[in-house]
Amino acid sequence: MSQDRDAEPGAPREPQAPREQEARTGRTGATMRGLLSRESNEFDRGLSFFDAIYGFAITLLIANVDAPPATAWESLESLVATGILNQLAGFVLSFVVIAAFWRLNLGVIKRISAMDAATTTANLVAAGFVVLIPFTTQGISELGSQEYVLPTIVYALNLAIVGIAQLAIFEVARRRGLETEPMTAREHRAFVLDWLVTPGVFVLSVPIALLWGPDFGKLSWASLIILGPLAARLRLRVSGR
User: How far apart are CA 216 and CA 198, in angstroms?
Assistant: First the structure.
Protein backbone atom coordinates (compact mmCIF):
# COMPACT_ATOMS: atom_id res chain seq x y z
CA MET A 1 0.00 0.00 0.00
CA SER A 2 1.39 3.43 -0.93
CA GLN A 3 2.22 6.13 1.58
CA ASP A 4 -0.53 8.31 0.15
CA ARG A 5 -3.14 5.73 1.12
CA ASP A 6 -1.67 5.21 4.57
CA ALA A 7 -1.67 8.92 5.32
CA GLU A 8 -4.59 10.22 7.32
CA PRO A 9 -6.94 12.66 5.58
CA GLY A 10 -5.95 16.26 6.23
CA ALA A 11 -2.47 15.33 7.51
CA PRO A 12 0.27 17.80 6.52
CA ARG A 13 2.29 16.77 3.51
CA GLU A 14 5.98 16.14 4.00
CA PRO A 15 8.50 17.59 1.54
CA GLN A 16 8.80 15.17 -1.36
CA ALA A 17 11.96 13.14 -1.74
CA PRO A 18 13.73 13.01 -5.11
CA ARG A 19 12.05 9.71 -6.06
CA GLU A 20 8.62 11.15 -5.30
CA GLN A 21 9.52 14.29 -7.22
CA GLU A 22 10.49 12.13 -10.19
CA ALA A 23 7.24 10.18 -10.05
CA ARG A 24 5.13 13.34 -9.82
CA THR A 25 6.91 15.38 -12.47
CA GLY A 26 7.65 12.51 -14.85
CA ARG A 27 11.38 13.23 -14.96
CA THR A 28 13.83 10.46 -15.53
CA GLY A 29 16.82 9.73 -13.35
CA ALA A 30 19.07 11.53 -15.81
CA THR A 31 17.12 14.75 -15.61
CA MET A 32 16.96 14.53 -11.83
CA ARG A 33 20.74 14.59 -11.47
CA GLY A 34 21.97 17.60 -9.59
CA LEU A 35 18.77 17.82 -7.55
CA LEU A 36 19.68 18.68 -3.97
CA SER A 37 16.93 17.43 -1.67
CA ARG A 38 16.25 19.20 1.60
CA GLU A 39 17.50 16.17 3.54
CA SER A 40 20.92 16.17 1.85
CA ASN A 41 24.13 17.72 3.16
CA GLU A 42 24.60 19.43 -0.20
CA PHE A 43 21.35 21.35 0.32
CA ASP A 44 22.61 22.61 3.69
CA ARG A 45 25.94 23.59 2.15
CA GLY A 46 24.18 25.51 -0.61
CA LEU A 47 21.98 27.32 1.90
CA SER A 48 25.02 28.19 4.04
CA PHE A 49 26.76 29.56 0.96
CA PHE A 50 23.92 31.96 0.19
CA ASP A 51 23.61 32.95 3.86
CA ALA A 52 27.30 33.85 3.81
CA ILE A 53 26.77 36.10 0.78
CA TYR A 54 24.09 38.11 2.57
CA GLY A 55 26.30 38.36 5.67
CA PHE A 56 29.24 39.49 3.55
CA ALA A 57 27.10 42.15 1.84
CA ILE A 58 26.06 43.54 5.22
CA THR A 59 29.68 43.58 6.34
CA LEU A 60 30.71 45.53 3.23
CA LEU A 61 28.35 48.35 4.21
CA ILE A 62 30.75 49.54 6.88
CA ALA A 63 33.30 50.31 4.15
CA ASN A 64 31.04 53.20 3.09
CA VAL A 65 31.51 54.90 6.47
CA ASP A 66 34.70 56.97 6.42
CA ALA A 67 36.40 57.58 9.75
CA PRO A 68 36.34 61.35 10.45
CA PRO A 69 39.70 63.09 10.94
CA ALA A 70 40.79 63.75 14.50
CA THR A 71 40.03 67.47 14.18
CA ALA A 72 36.37 66.68 13.37
CA TRP A 73 35.85 65.44 16.92
CA GLU A 74 36.47 68.92 18.28
CA SER A 75 32.75 69.72 18.22
CA LEU A 76 29.46 68.17 17.14
CA GLU A 77 29.11 70.77 14.42
CA SER A 78 32.45 69.91 12.83
CA LEU A 79 31.67 66.19 13.12
CA VAL A 80 28.33 66.58 11.32
CA ALA A 81 30.03 68.69 8.64
CA THR A 82 32.08 65.65 7.58
CA GLY A 83 28.91 63.91 6.37
CA ILE A 84 29.24 61.08 8.87
CA LEU A 85 25.52 61.19 9.71
CA ASN A 86 24.57 60.71 6.07
CA GLN A 87 26.90 57.74 5.79
CA LEU A 88 25.55 56.19 9.00
CA ALA A 89 21.99 56.69 7.75
CA GLY A 90 22.85 54.87 4.54
CA PHE A 91 24.50 52.09 6.55
CA VAL A 92 21.41 51.62 8.74
CA LEU A 93 19.02 51.74 5.78
CA SER A 94 20.87 49.15 3.74
CA PHE A 95 21.57 46.98 6.80
CA VAL A 96 17.81 46.71 7.34
CA VAL A 97 17.20 46.16 3.61
CA ILE A 98 19.73 43.35 3.25
CA ALA A 99 18.54 41.70 6.46
CA ALA A 100 14.96 41.84 5.12
CA PHE A 101 16.03 40.31 1.81
CA TRP A 102 17.86 37.56 3.71
CA ARG A 103 14.68 36.74 5.63
CA LEU A 104 12.71 36.70 2.39
CA ASN A 105 15.27 34.35 0.90
CA LEU A 106 14.84 32.02 3.87
CA GLY A 107 11.09 32.13 3.29
CA VAL A 108 11.59 31.10 -0.32
CA ILE A 109 13.87 28.22 0.65
CA LYS A 110 11.28 26.97 3.15
CA ARG A 111 8.73 26.77 0.35
CA ILE A 112 10.79 24.45 -1.85
CA SER A 113 11.63 20.81 -1.26
CA ALA A 114 14.90 20.79 -3.19
CA MET A 115 17.24 22.88 -5.32
CA ASP A 116 18.31 22.05 -8.84
CA ALA A 117 20.52 23.81 -11.36
CA ALA A 118 17.80 26.28 -12.38
CA THR A 119 16.82 27.32 -8.86
CA THR A 120 20.47 27.56 -7.83
CA THR A 121 21.20 29.82 -10.80
CA ALA A 122 18.23 32.04 -9.95
CA ASN A 123 19.48 32.25 -6.36
CA LEU A 124 22.95 33.21 -7.56
CA VAL A 125 21.50 36.02 -9.70
CA ALA A 126 19.61 37.39 -6.70
CA ALA A 127 22.69 37.11 -4.48
CA GLY A 128 24.77 38.94 -7.09
CA PHE A 129 22.49 41.97 -6.97
CA VAL A 130 22.51 41.83 -3.16
CA VAL A 131 26.29 42.20 -3.21
CA LEU A 132 25.82 45.37 -5.29
CA ILE A 133 23.79 47.04 -2.54
CA PRO A 134 26.85 48.33 -0.61
CA PHE A 135 28.09 49.96 -3.84
CA THR A 136 24.78 51.66 -4.64
CA THR A 137 24.40 52.66 -0.99
CA GLN A 138 27.54 54.76 -1.28
CA GLY A 139 25.89 56.92 -3.95
CA ILE A 140 22.93 57.88 -1.75
CA SER A 141 24.95 58.37 1.44
CA GLU A 142 28.10 60.23 0.33
CA LEU A 143 28.07 63.97 1.00
CA GLY A 144 27.67 65.62 -2.38
CA SER A 145 26.53 62.68 -4.51
CA GLN A 146 23.34 62.24 -2.48
CA GLU A 147 22.05 65.47 -4.01
CA TYR A 148 22.01 63.94 -7.49
CA VAL A 149 19.05 62.04 -8.91
CA LEU A 150 21.07 59.21 -10.47
CA PRO A 151 22.26 57.59 -7.20
CA THR A 152 18.68 57.41 -5.93
CA ILE A 153 17.50 55.83 -9.18
CA VAL A 154 20.33 53.29 -9.26
CA TYR A 155 19.75 52.33 -5.62
CA ALA A 156 15.99 51.96 -6.12
CA LEU A 157 16.43 49.83 -9.24
CA ASN A 158 19.03 47.70 -7.45
CA LEU A 159 16.57 46.86 -4.68
CA ALA A 160 13.70 46.32 -7.12
CA ILE A 161 15.78 43.83 -9.11
CA VAL A 162 16.73 41.93 -5.94
CA GLY A 163 13.06 41.61 -4.98
CA ILE A 164 12.05 40.39 -8.44
CA ALA A 165 15.02 37.99 -8.61
CA GLN A 166 14.05 36.44 -5.30
CA LEU A 167 10.50 35.93 -6.51
CA ALA A 168 11.97 34.30 -9.62
CA ILE A 169 13.66 31.69 -7.40
CA PHE A 170 10.29 30.52 -6.14
CA GLU A 171 8.62 30.75 -9.55
CA VAL A 172 11.33 28.60 -11.12
CA ALA A 173 11.00 26.04 -8.32
CA ARG A 174 7.21 26.06 -8.63
CA ARG A 175 7.33 25.41 -12.36
CA ARG A 176 9.75 22.53 -11.80
CA GLY A 177 7.51 20.84 -9.24
CA LEU A 178 9.66 21.65 -6.22
CA GLU A 179 7.01 23.44 -4.16
CA THR A 180 6.54 21.87 -0.72
CA GLU A 181 2.90 22.87 -0.34
CA PRO A 182 1.41 23.66 -3.76
CA MET A 183 -0.78 26.76 -3.72
CA THR A 184 -4.01 27.19 -5.56
CA ALA A 185 -4.09 29.61 -8.48
CA ARG A 186 -5.84 32.19 -6.30
CA GLU A 187 -3.33 31.81 -3.47
CA HIS A 188 -0.48 32.07 -5.95
CA ARG A 189 -1.82 35.31 -7.41
CA ALA A 190 -2.14 36.81 -3.93
CA PHE A 191 1.37 35.63 -3.07
CA VAL A 192 2.87 37.22 -6.19
CA LEU A 193 1.00 40.50 -5.71
CA ASP A 194 2.12 40.67 -2.09
CA TRP A 195 5.72 40.04 -3.12
CA LEU A 196 5.68 42.64 -5.90
CA VAL A 197 4.61 45.47 -3.61
CA THR A 198 8.18 46.16 -2.47
CA PRO A 199 9.80 46.10 -5.94
CA GLY A 200 6.86 48.14 -7.24
CA VAL A 201 7.40 50.91 -4.70
CA PHE A 202 11.09 51.16 -5.59
CA VAL A 203 10.33 51.23 -9.33
CA LEU A 204 7.69 53.95 -8.86
CA SER A 205 10.16 56.01 -6.85
CA VAL A 206 12.23 56.45 -10.02
CA PRO A 207 9.78 58.80 -11.82
CA ILE A 208 9.09 60.53 -8.50
CA ALA A 209 12.81 61.26 -8.12
CA LEU A 210 13.02 62.46 -11.73
CA LEU A 211 10.06 64.81 -11.36
CA TRP A 212 10.46 66.13 -7.83
CA GLY A 213 14.04 65.33 -6.84
CA PRO A 214 15.90 62.57 -4.99
CA ASP A 215 14.59 63.51 -1.55
CA PHE A 216 10.99 62.89 -2.59
CA GLY A 217 12.05 59.66 -4.27
CA LYS A 218 13.58 58.45 -1.02
CA LEU A 219 10.56 59.56 1.00
CA SER A 220 8.31 57.43 -1.21
CA TRP A 221 10.10 54.33 0.08
CA ALA A 222 8.52 54.98 3.48
CA SER A 223 5.14 54.00 1.97
CA LEU A 224 6.24 50.38 2.43
CA ILE A 225 5.62 50.81 6.15
CA ILE A 226 1.91 50.89 5.32
CA LEU A 227 1.66 49.04 2.01
CA GLY A 228 3.76 46.06 3.13
CA PRO A 229 1.53 44.98 6.05
CA LEU A 230 -1.63 45.66 4.04
CA ALA A 231 -0.48 43.42 1.19
CA ALA A 232 0.57 40.69 3.63
CA ARG A 233 -2.81 40.84 5.38
CA LEU A 234 -4.61 40.52 2.05
CA ARG A 235 -2.52 37.48 1.12
CA LEU A 236 -3.27 35.79 4.44
CA ARG A 237 -6.95 36.55 4.03
CA VAL A 238 -6.98 34.90 0.62
CA SER A 239 -5.15 31.90 2.10
CA GLY A 240 -7.80 31.65 4.82
CA ARG A 241 -5.34 32.15 7.67
Answer: 17
